[in-house]
Amino acid sequence: MPELNGILLSRRVAKELPSVKILILTLHEDRAYLRQAIDAGVRGYLLKRSAAENFLGALRAVVTGGLYVDPAIAPQLFDSGPRQATGPRNGNMPDLTDREGDVLKLVALGYTNKEIARRLDIGIKSVETYKARGVEKLGLKTRAELVRYASAEGWLSDI
Question: What pTM did the predictor assign?
């Protein structure tokens, strides 16, 4: 964009149209640009080099009100400064069942309960139960906290 960069455009759109959810497709892999984008109101940050395999997950996360950061750059969000308390309440690693872990990974990737149920061949109520148990064990409250936790645990790079 010759007269405007993605950060400035995102800031302008977020200010003028706050209900619009912004997903950036970019070449920039540095932490500074990522932080500026998030501060500007961007809800999704997807690298062009991984867009083919991650676009649908990114879109799902943003559309459902979550935050998506490309798995290749997500660890940079956590590289410096104190971490936010988005982990187990008691400081011990929680004992998630395999099914709870599978469900939470798919939730963090932006899949709906219906999609998760279909993918894991279980009922929607079971998905809701596994999700509720898992986030309770982890002490998480929001989808954004779950995405941050998933990124820090390397769940998003397993895809």
Answer: 0.50
